[in-house]
Q: What sequence folds into this?
């Protein structure tokens, strides 16, 4: 019996579960990455492998124990290591004696046949092409709904009057979207969920700082890997805007990424004219766009040893100076502690507050 | 005279002869930063991001030391030279890192070379550099041809078994290497990035250390491109970084030389992203075919003592094994 699993990235598993079920697969849900996941991952990967590679390794090993034998993941082409993850994972798993099948999706635009072949492999229900497209569309809508809810929490949390209210409501309404199946149901659930979130009592007086979040995709999308930094920031009275979402990112890859008439690429051009792989150039471009939009600061999240983000960080020193925007970087790995992070965040928030007040009094 | 600075790091070990010949033929003065020293490295460690790999820190140190001595720094943006693989993202962003990562640096010449995008990309790149200095087309072409010739001589020396620092000294100072005759009792292959193996400070001069222990050394740099090209390795997917791919192929080549080689050493750089994967693949890829293998990671303070001891232990082990086989 084939039991399918996939990487854990925030709440997106709710969508993938639905889609894979629709196509007739038995799904083993990946658990939220925990200490155990990290320990397993660290144990079976090279020391300087990037953090996402380690977490994914841990996740796969956990799901193998739960009986999974097919892994669906994405490949991606250079120039960064992500493109080689799947191969390395496969070799390590085989080496450990797991007889698994790995289905690696490459970007469909570049590899249309790979895409079709893979979909075919994951379609034991033998749905027609038309039906499959319907399923994908519905799944996409659900993914968008999930992203929209998350975005709403980013705005509401820093303004909540009752500490913890947003997180609690968010957990509840996620289930509503989770249960929705048809497109109509998804749209309705999304609306009800947003209404519910907006009912959370807010303090309109509170001075809220705005911070943009840039960095590598996995640590941006998986809160467990960044120690729930967005929640911590929200509790500190900071509204965050993340530069990347699963639906947003995929769109950027396919269409032109326009923000206020200037693309991320154009913004980054004077500092880094080369596409260096990963999301290094986006980190620079987005930081500049946030600065232009008068954000109070930017936080860069990067896996330890992440090559493109190291290049980006080096250059961000100048960007931060030229645009007068504070930038704080976290290189994350299994040793990053929540307490240490909180201390650095508090200091950063103080710095931004002081700057904001200085500006306010000056004008 | 206009002074062009070339840091003795990273691409230096691969293209320095060509670059030097080119600039000198154009009538410019080439200034290098010399061998890596403690002071130089300290500067790099201070200026570069703590999370950067050692070779990039070394590069920062060299660039910094040239700061007040040159009018330009030559840091080309080498993206792709073989139409297939590209260089590690840190090479792709190298000129930008130097320009924006340190203050008050001299102007950076960052001509881009990507053979996938244009025909004759390499010549065009050199030509645009010549134009930057307002040189006449004939002179630029002449300088380019001269540079190409020198580079060819350089590569021939490498094929003959000289290591890059030796070949560079032979070409520009006519200094004959001391140890050309390979008379040791053991033969080792060293794989890894040229800027790690041949930076005698960070690698604690591994090549000569081994020679003194009676080991003849071949490095990835001594293998011909054709030989490397013929190696099949099995990673399922093409490795897209040039130096990493080359390391993998060299390891493959050496592991097929069972009769001639007694040991293989992989020198990896602390904090190197690609290396973590390369090393794992070397081990997976049918290991090294039974040839004793060791990987050593080099960092800012790897120090003589630690590596020396490990090398001695490895050499002893290989010797013992060899004796018991006879
Ligand atoms: S972008 Fe960073 S985390 Fe992703 S593969 Fe590259 S080095 Fe690893
Ligand atoms: S290949 Fe490794 S050592 Fe070389 S620049 Fe890239 S990260 Fe650094």
A:
């Amino acid at each position: 019996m084939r039991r399918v699993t996939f990487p854990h990235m925030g709440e997106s598993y709710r969508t993938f579960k639905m889609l894979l079920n629709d196509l007739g697969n038995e799904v083993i849900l990946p658990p939220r990455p925990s200490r155990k996941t990290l320990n397993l991952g660290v144990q079976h990967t090279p020391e300087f492998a990037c953090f996402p590679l380690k977490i994914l390794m841990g996740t796969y090993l956990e799901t193998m124990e739960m009986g999974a034998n097919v892994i669906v993941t994405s490949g991606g082409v250079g120039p960064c290591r992500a493109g080689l993850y799947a191969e390395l994972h496969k070799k390590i798993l085989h080496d450990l004696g797991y007889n698994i099948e790995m289905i690696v999706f490459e970007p469909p635009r570049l590899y249309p046949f790979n895409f079709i072949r893979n979909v075919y492999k994951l379609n034991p229900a033998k749905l027609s092409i038309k039906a499959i497209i319907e399923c994908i569309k519905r799944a996409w809508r659900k993914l968008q709904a999930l992203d929209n809810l998350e975005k709403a929490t980013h705005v509401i949390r820093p303004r909540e009057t009752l500490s913890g209210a947003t997180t609690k409501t968010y957990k509840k309404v996620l289930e509503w979207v989770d249960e929705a199946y048809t497109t109509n149901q998804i749209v309705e659930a999304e609306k009800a969920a947003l209404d519910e979130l907006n009912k959370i009592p807010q303090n309109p007086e509170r001075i809220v700082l705005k911070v943009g979040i840039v960095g590598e995709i996995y640590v941006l999308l998986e809160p467990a890997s960044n120690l729930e930094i967005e929640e911590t920031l929200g509790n500190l009275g900071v509204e965050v805007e993340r530069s990347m979402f699963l639906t947003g990112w995929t769109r950027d890859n396919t269409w032109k990424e326009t923000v206020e008439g200037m693309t991320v690429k154009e913004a980054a051009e004077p500092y880094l004219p080369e596409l260096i792989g990963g999301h290094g150039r986006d980190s620079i471009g987005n930081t500049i766009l946030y600065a232009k939009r008068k954000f109070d600061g930017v936080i860069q999240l990067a896996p330890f040893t992440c090559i493109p983000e190291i290049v980006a960080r080096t250059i961000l020193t100048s960007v931060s100076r030229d645009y007068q925007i504070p930038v704080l970087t976290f290189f994350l790995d299994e040793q990053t502690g929540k307490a240490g992070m909180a201390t650095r965040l508090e200091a950063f928030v103080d710095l931004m507050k002081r700057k904001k007040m200085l500006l306010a009094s000056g004008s | 005279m206009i002074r062009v600075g070339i840091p003795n790091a990273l691409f230096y070990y691969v293209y320095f002869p060509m670059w030097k010949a080119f600039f000198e033929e154009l009538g410019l003065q080439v200034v290098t930063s010399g061998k890596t020293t403690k002071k130089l490295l300290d500067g790099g460690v201070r200026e570069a991001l703590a999370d950067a790999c050692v070779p990039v820190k070394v590069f920062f140190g060299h660039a910094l030391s040239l700061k007040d001595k040159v009018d330009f720094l030559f840091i080309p943006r080498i993206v792709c030279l073989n139409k297939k693989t590209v260089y590690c993202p840190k090479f792709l962003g190298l000129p930008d890192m130097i320009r924006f990562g340190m203050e008050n640096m001299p102007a950076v010449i960052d001509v881009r070379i990507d053979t996938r995008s244009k025909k004759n990309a390499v010549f065009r790149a050199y030509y645009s550099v010549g134009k930057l200095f307002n040189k006449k087309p004939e002179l630029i072409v002449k300088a380019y041809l001269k540079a190409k010739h020198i580079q060819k001589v350089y590569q021939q020396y490498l094929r003959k078994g000289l290591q890059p620092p030796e070949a560079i000294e032979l070409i520009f100072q006519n200094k004959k290497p001391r140890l050309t005759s390979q008379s040791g009792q053991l033969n080792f292959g060293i794989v890894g990035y040229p800027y790690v193996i041949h930076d005698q400070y960070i690698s604690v001069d591994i090549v000569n250390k081994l020679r003194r222990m009676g080991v003849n050394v071949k490095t990835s740099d001594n293998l011909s491109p054709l030989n490397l090209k013929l190696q099949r390795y099995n990673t399922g997917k093409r490795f897209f970084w040039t130096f990493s791919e080359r390391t993998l192929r060299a390891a493959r080549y050496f592991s097929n030389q069972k009769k001639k080689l007694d040991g293989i050493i992989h020198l990896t750089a602390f904090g190197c992203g690609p290396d973590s994967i390369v090393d794992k693949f070397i081990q997976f890829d049918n290991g090294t075919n039974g040839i004793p293998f060791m990987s050593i990671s080099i960092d800012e303070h790897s120090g003589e003592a630690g590596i020396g001891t490990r090398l001695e232990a490895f050499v002893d082990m290989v010797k013992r094994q060899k004796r018991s086989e006879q």
